[in-house]
């Protein structure tokens, strides 16, 4: 019988081509204008407000002063924590963020919006930055906007296990502070501000129930995640005076929360800083920094709000907090301009052992399709990621334990804006590989490809599962600055063959088999370019005991190349992490930022 598995007609071929193009965009091959032709950003998402938004907390650019006691570059977890804690000490703090403000209702809702929110040279107001470089072994995906990574992450407040903190990659002071309970206390402090909680209905959605069932069949405990998402009150002000709504389990956490329930940094640490007198400026792209003979720091910026305006401001205390890629890039440019920095700059890059995989077209409806603001009857997506299978076994031999075999395997959701694109991309792949599927499975494939513009609830993609993992890698990547393009890329030969990634891939394949689906590793690793994707990039300005091993010390203070300390110069973000965590990094970065803030205040760096 000549069936779907053996014959692809002309309509199939055209649809497969369109789906493959969509898939290339989703998995990072379309480069948002970075390495090829620049896209016209056109209009902003339809719901973006015209004129000043009353929800904005940023200052008008005209209010920017020439000098500040404290300047913080970046507004992610590190920068926001420092802004809140240092402004409480009565010193004038200035925060510079390269992106714009984003509020509920402004995030992408469909494929048309997605093409408009890509950050690039022609669209500096874009939300999603993907540093895809022809020389790079790792593609970095990150957010651009006030609140940094918090805008697009799954809001997971997970903690590294004790074994991670005991590794000698950390300065001895960090290991000691974990042993004496101080790191845990700082995590608790950050968690209170971020309002991390379990969702009461986490185990009532199909995808989490399946994850739990399969994990238990494989002998692995499945647990609920603590998430920085509000589900306890609706249309009320939180502790920081910001009105929030309750979570609707729409699944769109990772494309931007349009409901207003996610505890992004613009609803906690940043408004706290603003209420204490901090000034916040958006669309401020910092090029590089210099240090004067008198010890002042000169920050060179370009304001990109309307037309590009170049300028400088100075600071007594400078805190770099632009994220692993952003901070390292600015530091490398600054070293090129003469700033004295450690030779370790750019080292210890880690992808945090992160990996993605799919069980495609399985036996059971999973409801992994986010529905956004349009609830579907009989289908609840849940939050983006809600549970994890815990592969960090308690009974291990401390002398022989292998961190590469210890990780969290998490569930996942396709954001509603990506649903049509992803469903057709996978359907196109299935047609090209139809011999892998049964006749019944191919019927589901054709539902996704032809029946409706939106994915069918009975189609192949809604009978699939997404797996994410946070594990470990060797942290052997290194940032390089491309002098011609003036941006960094990651050199890490054979990264896709790292033991940690291979271990996780094998286990994900077992879950796919239990689900009755076809296991598809991240196509970016296997089809499009054989590269890693990093959504949790770490390192670049790693902590170390000295300038030979680190760019900063345990307090985030910046080393000179000969091991001295730059007074009043700090790095506080994911770039200072010297290794993978085996957990999502937001809580670790926040805790270390709380610790560094206390040390800055205690040693009178601010002149208090």
From TrEMBL:
<dbReference type="Pfam" id="PF13450">
    <property type="entry name" value="NAD_binding_8"/>
</dbReference>
<keyword id="KW-0560">Oxidoreductase</keyword>
<dbReference type="GO" id="GO:0016995">
    <property type="term" value="F:cholesterol oxidase activity"/>
</dbReference>
<keyword id="KW-0753">Steroid metabolism</keyword>
<dbReference type="Pfam" id="PF00732">
    <property type="entry name" value="GMC_oxred_N"/>
</dbReference>
<keyword id="KW-0285">Flavoprotein</keyword>
<keyword id="KW-0413">Isomerase</keyword>
<feature type="transmembrane region" description="Helical">
    <location>
        <begin position="12"/>
        <end position="30"/>
    </location>
</feature>
<protein>
    <recommendedName>
        <fullName>Cholesterol oxidase</fullName>
        <ecNumber>1.1.3.6</ecNumber>
        <ecNumber>5.3.3.1</ecNumber>
    </recommendedName>
</protein>
<dbReference type="Pfam" id="PF05199">
    <property type="entry name" value="GMC_oxred_C"/>
</dbReference>
<feature type="region of interest" description="Disordered">
    <location>
        <begin position="30"/>
        <end position="56"/>
    </location>
</feature>
<dbReference type="GO" id="GO:0004769">
    <property type="term" value="F:steroid Delta-isomerase activity"/>
</dbReference>
<comment type="pathway">
    <text>Steroid metabolism; cholesterol degradation.</text>
</comment>
<dbReference type="InterPro" id="IPR007867">
    <property type="entry name" value="GMC_OxRtase_C"/>
</dbReference>
<comment type="similarity">
    <text>Belongs to the GMC oxidoreductase family.</text>
</comment>
<keyword id="KW-1207">Sterol metabolism</keyword>
<dbReference type="InterPro" id="IPR052542">
    <property type="entry name" value="Cholesterol_Oxidase"/>
</dbReference>
<keyword id="KW-0274">FAD</keyword>
<feature type="domain" description="Glucose-methanol-choline oxidoreductase N-terminal">
    <location>
        <begin position="135"/>
        <end position="336"/>
    </location>
</feature>
<keyword id="KW-0812">Transmembrane</keyword>
<keyword id="KW-1133">Transmembrane helix</keyword>
<dbReference type="GO" id="GO:0008203">
    <property type="term" value="P:cholesterol metabolic process"/>
</dbReference>
<keyword id="KW-0443">Lipid metabolism</keyword>
<keyword id="KW-0153">Cholesterol metabolism</keyword>
<dbReference type="InterPro" id="IPR000172">
    <property type="entry name" value="GMC_OxRdtase_N"/>
</dbReference>
<keyword id="KW-0472">Membrane</keyword>
<feature type="domain" description="Glucose-methanol-choline oxidoreductase C-terminal">
    <location>
        <begin position="534"/>
        <end position="593"/>
    </location>
</feature>
<dbReference type="InterPro" id="IPR036188">
    <property type="entry name" value="FAD/NAD-bd_sf"/>
</dbReference>
<dbReference type="GO" id="GO:0050660">
    <property type="term" value="F:flavin adenine dinucleotide binding"/>
</dbReference>
């Amino acid at each position: 019988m000549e069936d779907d598995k053996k014959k692809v007609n002309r309509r199939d071929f055209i649809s497969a081509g369109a789906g493959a193009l969509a898939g290339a965009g989703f998995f990072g091959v379309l480069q948002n204008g970075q390495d090829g032709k620049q896209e016209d950003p056109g209009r902003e998402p339809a719901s973006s407000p015209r004129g000043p938004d009353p929800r904005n907390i940023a200052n008008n650019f005209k209010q920017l002063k020439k000098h500040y006691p404290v300047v913080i570059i970046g507004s992610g977890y590190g920068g926001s924590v420092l802004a809140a804690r240092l402004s409480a000490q009565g010193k004038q703090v200035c925060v510079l963020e390269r992106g714009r403000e984003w509020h509920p209702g402004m995030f992408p809702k469909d494929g048309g919006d997605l093409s408009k929110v890509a950050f690039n040279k022609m669209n500096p107001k874009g939300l999603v930055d993907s540093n895809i470089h022809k020389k790079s072994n790792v593609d970095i995906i990150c957010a651009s906007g006030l609140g940094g990574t918090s805008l697009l992450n799954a809001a997971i407040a997970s903690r590294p296990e004790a074994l991670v903190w005991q590794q000698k990659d950390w300065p001895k002071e960090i290991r000691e502070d974990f042993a004496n309970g101080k790191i845990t206390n700082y995590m608790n402090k950050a968690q209170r501000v971020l309002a991390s909680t379990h969702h009461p209905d986490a185990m009532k959605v199909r995808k989490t129930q399946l994850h739990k069932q399969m994990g238990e069949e494989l002998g692995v405990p499945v647990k609920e995640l603590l998430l920085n998402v509000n589900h306890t009150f609706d249309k009320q002000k939180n502790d920081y005076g910001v009105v929030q709504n309750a979570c609707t389990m729409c699944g769109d956490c990772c494309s931007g929360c349009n409901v207003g329930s996610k505890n992004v940094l613009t609803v906690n640490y940043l408004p706290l800083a603003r209420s204490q007198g901090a000034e916040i400026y958006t669309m401020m792209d910092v090029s590089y920094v210099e240090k004067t003979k008198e010890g002042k720091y000169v920050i060179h910026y370009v304001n990109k709000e309307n037309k590009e305006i170049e300028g400088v401001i100075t600071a007594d205390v400078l805190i770099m907090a632009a994220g692993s890629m952003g901070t390292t890039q600015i530091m490398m440019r600054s070293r090129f301009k003469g700033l004295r920095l450690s030779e370790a700059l750019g080292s210890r890059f880690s992808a945090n052992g992160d990996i993605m995989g799919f069980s495609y077209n399985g036996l059971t409806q999973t409801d992994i399709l986010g529905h956004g603001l349009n609830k579907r009857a009989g289908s609840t997506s849940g939050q983006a990621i809600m549970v994890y299978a815990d592969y960090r076994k308690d009974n291990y031999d401390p002398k022989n334990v292998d961190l590469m075999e210890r990780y969290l395997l998490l569930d996942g959701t396709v954001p509603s804006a990506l649903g049509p694109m992803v469903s057709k991309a996978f359907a196109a792949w299935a047609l090209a590989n139809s011999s892998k599927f049964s006749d019944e499975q191919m019927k589901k494939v054709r539902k996704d490809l032809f029946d409706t513009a939106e994915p069918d609830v009975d189609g192949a993609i809604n009978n699939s599962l997404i797996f994410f993992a946070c594990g470990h890698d060797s942290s052997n990547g290194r940032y390089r600055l491309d002098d011609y393009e003036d941006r960094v890329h990651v050199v890490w030969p054979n990264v896709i063959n790292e033991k940690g990634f291979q271990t996780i891939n094998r286990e994900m394949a077992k879950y796919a088999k239990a689900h009755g689906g076809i296991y598809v590793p991240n196509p970016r690793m296997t089809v499009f370019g054989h590269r890693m994707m990093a959504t949790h990039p770490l390192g670049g300005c790693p902590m170390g005991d000295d300038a030979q091993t680190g760019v900063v010390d345990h307090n985030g203070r910046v080393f000179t190349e000969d091991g001295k300390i730059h007074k009043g110069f700090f790095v506080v973000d994911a770039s200072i992490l010297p290794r993978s965590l085996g957990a999502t990094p937001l809580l670790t970065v926040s805790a270390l930022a709380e610790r560094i803030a206390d040390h800055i205040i205690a040693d009178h760096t601010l002149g208090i």
